[in-house]
Amino acid sequence: VTGADAVTASPTVFGIDLHVDLTSSRVRAGLEGALREAVRSGLLVTGTRLPSSRQLAADLGLARNTVADAYGQLVAEGWLTARQGSGTRVADLPSPARAPATPPPRTTEPGYDLRSGVPTLASFPATAWVTALRRALHAAPADALGYTDVRGRPELRQALASHLARTRGVRACPDGIVVCSGFTQGLSLLARVLHQRGATTVATEEYAQPAHRDVLAAQGLASRPLPVDVEGALVDRLGDEDAVLLTPAHQFPLGPTLSTRRRSAVLTWAADTGGLVIEDDYDGEFRHDRHSVGALQGRGPHHVVHVGTTSKTLAPGVRLGWLVAPPDLVDDLVEAKRTTDLASSSLDQLALARLITDGGYDKHVRRSRHVARRRRDELLDALHRQAPAVQVDGIAAGLHTLVLLPGVPTDARPQAVVETDAVASAARHGLAVEGLQAYRHPDSDTTPRPAALVVGLATPPDHAYSGALTRLAATLNELPALQDGPGSRRAGPASSSVP
Amino acid sequence: VTGADAVTASPTVFGIDLHVDLTSSRVRAGLEGALREAVRSGLLVTGTRLPSSRQLAADLGLARNTVADAYGQLVAEGWLTARQGSGTRVADLPSPARAPATPPPRTTEPGYDLRSGVPTLASFPATAWVTALRRALHAAPADALGYTDVRGRPELRQALASHLARTRGVRACPDGIVVCSGFTQGLSLLARVLHQRGATTVATEEYAQPAHRDVLAAQGLASRPLPVDVEGALVDRLGDEDAVLLTPAHQFPLGPTLSTRRRSAVLTWAADTGGLVIEDDYDGEFRHDRHSVGALQGRGPHHVVHVGTTSKTLAPGVRLGWLVAPPDLVDDLVEAKRTTDLASSSLDQLALARLITDGGYDKHVRRSRHVARRRRDELLDALHRQAPAVQVDGIAAGLHTLVLLPGVPTDARPQAVVETDAVASAARHGLAVEGLQAYRHPDSDTTPRPAALVVGLATPPDHAYSGALTRLAATLNELPALQDGPGSRRAGPASSSVP
């Protein structure tokens, strides 16, 4: 990841052409390594004055603290000296210290990342968040950081009620909202309450987040796979399940939106059987080609629990989510939350409430949606030019797409193996990406979907995105089917293959 | 809570002598009410220019936003007008609007609060926290806000490992720490893991937080009361329980520290039976008269889970805590955390890590300890002067004390009733306070402790503390036993009454 190049040995260096890979999670280590190697190799000679940490940070687009910390570390190690008024300079090292010249350690970590749900800090509105927190703390009532309402801070429930009504058509009053720590906790609390009420089985989409099945299992609930087609989950097949977990706005990871017909059908099922619909609205705010599809909860607030999260709009590390629940569930959810962790972070709740009411949240979501749409177009364009035989699916919405892996239809190898090979091939190109079959329910008995990669649109920082696409195209072009020439097999779009 | 007084009717008012009770959680409502009443009553006449929101905020010690919001509300209601360049003035109200002169609504909410564990925002180091968060976000690696290590951010676990070793004698490596959302979640995760391993019963101190018993029960564990005397919990009475939950540094709420002899005994019990010791170190950093007592975990890291929290050092609303667990428990705790809420807020974790490494955390704890000690001394002094017959116990450490309620020893009324009367009497004085018996285990079969109030030292803001003490003394002086004259009954200190 590190390396040094063309460093001028003048007494003062303004801007160093260091090849620091900014996609690496170890930026500071990379910078330190690059500087260490530049000194060791003699590119930076004794007495050379380095740019100020502020200057170098600006040149490299890093936080100043990153540079200052790296300088501090190298001063501590004896490579550099720092003296008041004289700046940071290359130390006068005894020759032996430079002699070893061992190459910097090679990292095997991929430099590019197209996995879904792995955002970089760069996409988080850090300044707006910190400002919102500061203002919220100034304005908050005296008891805001005490043992608060288990449902969450009133400021946030108030802000969410109107925000969700406006943007998602959710019917919510502040007292019907339970703030939780991300979707995972929301589902865990629901599962606990359902289990307490005697529930045993929850239907889940046959391709879905495996972790969600684990959350259900941890509360004693079995999950039963529900096939998915172009209209979304086949809710007509629901039977005696106690609940169904759906991603109606944008099925994850396959992509379709739950059709109007299916929406009515699942609400009818719920009304007839008393089953609960759990609406995972993980990226409902991200639509590219059509108007936003309203939340299912708006059509059936007495049968649907709407679960939202800031993991896609802000970052998973925020760990905030919300349950909008039918009235007869709220008290039990509150009791479950009380004995689980009492409440979610008031600091984060106050900041988010402020960000929503100040308009900063909407602004950030609009910007993120714009970025995701632009990146989707870049992906389609790059693959069209560089790997024309490849098809892409699930592109109408959201923060990920499916890139179908070309292969021989009669190929006896399981789709999962085709994907594993592609993922390994991508890794050799320095690209992290993941296969579709990892999301398949282990009990699913339908024909597996054609092999595909689930490609995240929000993951790499801007400057690394086109490089990531180039690596993706190169990976795809190396696959056996494409080597045989385009057209040897055209994977049909998953959205047209009804299981 | 509201009222207006001696407001000059000059064209421009600089500083208004409004009696706004800043201890109320409804500062803005109080300010609005005071201003409304001042206009209504004619104390502020039409055209009077009010101080700028900045100026009035500075005069009253409020956040500027609070004042600006109150002004905005009153402009919206028509009491004030705001015009660019002309400032905020009293509106020209038609006479009828002033006529009703209905008295402002009386709140029945106590104005003073001496309950334990109910801190005000004023004691939270908001500026240091926001700065730490800002700096931490600048310096954080690119993946810091992604789906992170379930155990918690490495920055925080690293900071905690050395902080806990230094301040509490905890033996921890970063990989043995699981960050959680406050003590409640820490206990809930432990209870879940214990239950999965077949545990059924946890011994708890007979006076303890009732909510902790609820957390155990929610995971299917029964709690069994363990008597407490001057040496802390009677751990010699432990038998076949699967675990014991203790507050060794400062028994809550009774006050004693677990003696050296008992510490050895409980570790022997754990080693002999395989039982787990859960160390609730809720206020271990707060000692007044002696050196800090090291954590029990330091003497038996293979049998003790040390659970810490920021609820007392910073604020409950931070919702951060940590488990330092024996190696054979860590994996199960991580799995429980993963399926409960995946991780705790990375934002809060990064900020706390920075606050610890920057020294701001230590500084704040030192300041809080100083305040708590000073307030304890003020409490002793105030009661000595104003209610000399009353005894105080549990004063060597922590953020609360026990104020023993004088009563007739032969009084047949249960201690809980004596306390309920005192709490009601305090409420009539505008003081919120709580009785000791609320903490008693329902299955406890020992003689109840003498009636007492659990008095928090950290709750009111500085300017309200002496007022709260005056109300406490007045409450105590009204009790029947004291009305009969001092000496009619001297409650022995709880610490000398071995059950």
In short:
2 copies of one chain form a homodimer. With 499 residues, chain A is α/β, with parallel strands linked by helices.
Walk me through this protein's architecture.
The structure is a homodimer of 499-residue chains. Helix content of chain A is 38%, strand content 13%. Residues 1-25, 95-108 and 484-499 of chain A have low confidence and may be disordered. Chain A contains 15 helices and 17 strands. The first copy, chain A, has 499 residues and is α/β, with parallel strands linked by helices. In chain A, the strands form 5 sheets. Chain A has a 7-stranded mixed beta sheet with strand order 4-12-11-10-9-5-6, sandwiched between helices. Chain A has a 4-stranded antiparallel beta sheet with strand order 13-14-17-16. A two-stranded antiparallel ribbon of chain A has the order 1-2. Chain A is globular and about 80 Å long. Chain A has helices at residues 27-40, 53-60, 64-77, 95-98, 126-139, 154-168, 182-196, 210-218, 260-273, 327-338, 346-357, 360-386, 415-428, 462-477, 480-483, and strands spanning 80-83, 87-90, 112-113, 177-180, 201-205, 222-226, 228-229, 232-233, 243-246, 276-280, 304-309, 321-324, 392-393, 400-404, 431-432, 434-435, 452-456. In chain A, helix 7 (182-196) crosses helix 10 (327-338). Chain A starts with 26 loop residues before the first helix and ends in a 16-residue tail after the last helix. In chain A, a hairpin with a 6-residue loop joins strand 13 and strand 14. At the A-B interface, helix 3, helix 5, helix 7, helix 8 and helix 11 of A face helix 3, helix 5, helix 7, helix 8 and helix 10 of B.
